[in-house]
Amino acid sequence: MAAVGLDEDGYVAVVQMCDQRRTVTYAQFAEEPDGAPTLAWIGRTVEPITFYRVGGDPPDNWVLDVDGGLLSDRSYTFSATAEDVEVTGPEITLADLNALGPGEVIDAEGSAQPLDDFLDSACSG
């Protein structure tokens, strides 16, 4: 499961792998679901929850693969790849993110909710 939102440090994307045997190896923001990445990270993690900060340091064991930014007049989709599975988050704009309060995220269905609620319920379906 993936969501995008705001925390105390700024824009953040979060991936929660419900199948904890999978390894996340790539994460990106792209203007189209199958488009070239605007901002991307490459690495490896077996952690069930990983945070990707826009404009911040990459997570441990990760590096920036594409060092771009998010523009205000564009829509983006966040996705992460774990072996043979791709997890896709919501299609968002910076206006969508700026409308959130700190600690809120938008999930893949487009619903805004507190980050803790997303993490508690993402894998319970």
Fold topology:
Blueprint: E1 2-7, E2 10-16, E3 24-30, E4 37-45, E5 49-53, E6 62-66, E7 76-82, E8 85-92, H1 94-98, E9 104-107, E10 112-114, H2 115-121
Antiparallel strand pairs: 1-2, 1-9, 2-5, 3-4, 3-7, 4-6, 7-8, 9-10
Structure description:
With 125 residues, the chain is mainly β. Helix content is 10%, strand content 49%. It contains two helices and ten strands, in the order ββββββββαββα. The strands form two sheets. Strands 5-2-1-9-10 form a five-stranded antiparallel sheet. The longest helix has 7 residues. The protein is globular, with a radius of gyration of 13 Å.
The biggest sheet amounts to: 5 strands, antiparallel
Would you report the number of β strands?
10
Q: How much helix, percentage-wise, in residues?
A: under 10%
Q: What topology, given as strand order, has the largest sheet? A: 5-2-1-9-10
Which oligomeric form is depicted? single chain
Structural class: mainly beta
Averaging pLDDT over every residue, what do you get? 88
Roughly what fraction of the amino acids lie in strands?
A: over 45%
Rg for CA atoms: 13 Å
Overall geometry comes to globular
Poorly predicted runs: none
The succession of helices and strands, N to C, reads EEEEEEEEHEEH
Q: Measure the end-to-end span.
A: 11 Å
The number of helices is 2
